Amino acid sequence: MTSGTVSSVSTNEIRVAAAQVNTTVGDIDGNAHLIEKWIKLSQDQQAELVAFPELTITGYPPEDLVLYDNFIAANKIALHRIAAKVENIVALVGFVDSEDGKLFNSAAVLHQGKIVTKYRKIHLPNYGVFDERRYFTPGEECPIISINGIKVGINICEDIWEPIGPAEIQSAAGAQIIINLNSSPYELGKHRHREKIVSDLSRRNHVYTLYTNQIGGQDELVFDGGSMLVDPDGKLMGSSTRFEESLLVADIKTDPKKKSLPRQQNYRVSNKTLAEVRKSLTVEIPTTKP
């Protein structure tokens, strides 16, 4: 995992955006241009952070396309090309990472022309329409990024559906905001279930949760969006119109006193795990305010 530390200006407010976009599986160049367009739209709204859906660059689900080395290479080249253009905003972009012959469903943190760090999806669904374990290797780390002193935990889709997952580890280590990148397909009534999952997670861990989902279709799958922001009390602060591309923008005022959750609320999170997250995996990003 890439990490580093730079100076920052501390504040407890941040403007975030969820880019609910319609990607096309396999169209790496088209998806890259789409990402660049919505980063610019987010900057026009003075957002300091914008989150895109799961596997934004490749489209979801890429399936057997990820078995081709040239496809993986092209998606990485596109990521670096996007990163080079990112200034004065933090962008969270989904892509396929690779290392030692293994593939990872990943999210990159882009800022000031660089890939600052990465997150690799830990919980890979392998039921119904999902067969991610066929292609991907689970990640092992739960990094936190610090933006102007505000700690943000990043994870991907299925990771928040687990009772004790990366979000619990990150919030226990002091994360004030959880950002979850998704490609969650439509089912009748599923958007209400998603809202409950996100609400319960936010309330349980006393964090804001920004949930971003894609729209569009791929083969038999239809994606309905429904991106949302939920506050630490589990209340819905805002949501995107379903089945439409949109940019959800919201201002978050965090609690600067939050350090970590009471230990009894994180009974499965070891002190060693918390220490690793706090000391080794926290990446500080300088101010992005204009």
Automatic annotation (TrEMBL):
Alphabetically list the UniProt keywords.
Ligase
Official protein name in the record: CN hydrolase domain-containing protein
Instruction: Kindly indicate whether the keyword Ligase belongs to this entry.
Output: yes
Keyword Hydrolase annotated: no
> Which Gene3D superfamilies does UniProt cross-reference here?
Carbon-nitrogen hydrolase
Q: Which SUPFAM superfamilies match?
A: Carbon-nitrogen hydrolase
Which cellular components does GO assign to this protein?
Answer: cytoplasm
Q: Which InterPro entries match?
A: C-N_Hydrolase, C-N_Hydrolase_sf, NAD_synthase
The GO biological-process annotations, alphabetized, read as: NAD+ biosynthetic process
Q: Name one Pfam family in it.
A: CN_hydrolase
Coiled coil stretches, renumbered = none
What range(s) does the CN hydrolase domain occupy?
14-254
What molecular function terms (GO) are annotated for this protein? glutaminase activity; NAD+ synthase (glutamine-hydrolyzing) activity
